[in-house]
């Protein structure tokens, strides 16, 4: 009758085994430390990366303010792409707006085709009074923060794991070299017969 063997234990490298080499224990420790460092380091760096992105998003929101601009010309109505003939859903047109100090500025903004001269638009300006794109929405900002944190954490974890793999390969290479040296000494004895 066959004896039942239990499933392999994750700690099998730590048990006493007459065939266990010192390099096996070193490899197991490297594996354990690489995973622990990857998880801890990845988490820490991910949190820092997410916080940095959150700060950048908040700085962008704080630096942009809405301005009320007036269209200085009627926007072209029939604008088409020269390559494929499709209509543009936005065109550039001249606008005029006043900054917080009352200084008038002229520029060009993206508007819907056919928008009439004199139409009031809400645009966004930076601290120097230049037109800029609208700030990132709360939802997009949260998404960017989460993706940045997860990406930085994953990359850091992979770097630790790759470093652990390189270290384990080096230990394995040294063990193989030692085994080859021992075989060179003992191998010839295997061919001898008792006489």
Automatic annotation (TrEMBL):
It comes from the Bacteria. InterPro entries: MT1774/Rv1733c-like. This is Integral membrane protein. It comes from Streptomyces spectabilis.
């Amino acid at each position: 009758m066959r004896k039942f063997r239990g499933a392999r234990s994750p700690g099998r490298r730590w048990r006493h085994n007459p065939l266990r080499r010192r390099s096996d224990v070193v490899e197991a420790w490297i594996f354990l430390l690489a995973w622990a460092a990857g998880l801890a380091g990845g988490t820490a760096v991910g949190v820092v990366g997410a916080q940095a992105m959150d700060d950048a998003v908040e700085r962008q929101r704080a630096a942009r303010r809405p301005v009320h601009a007036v269209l200085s010309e009627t926007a072209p109505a029939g604008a088409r792409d020269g390559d494929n003939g499709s209509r543009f859903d936005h065109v550039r047109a001249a606008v005029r707006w006043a900054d917080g100090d009352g200084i008038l500025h002229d520029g060009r903004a993206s508007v819907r085709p056919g928008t009439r001269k004199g139409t009031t638009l809400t645009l966004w300006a930076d601290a120097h009074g230049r037109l800029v794109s609208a700030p990132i929405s709360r939802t997009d900002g949260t998404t960017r923060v989460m993706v940045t944190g997860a990406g930085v954490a994953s990359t850091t974890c992979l770097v630790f794991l790759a470093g652990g793999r390189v270290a384990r390969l080096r230990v394995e290479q040294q063990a193989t070299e030692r085994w080859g040296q021992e075989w060179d000494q003992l191998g010839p004895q295997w061919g001898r017969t008792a006489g």
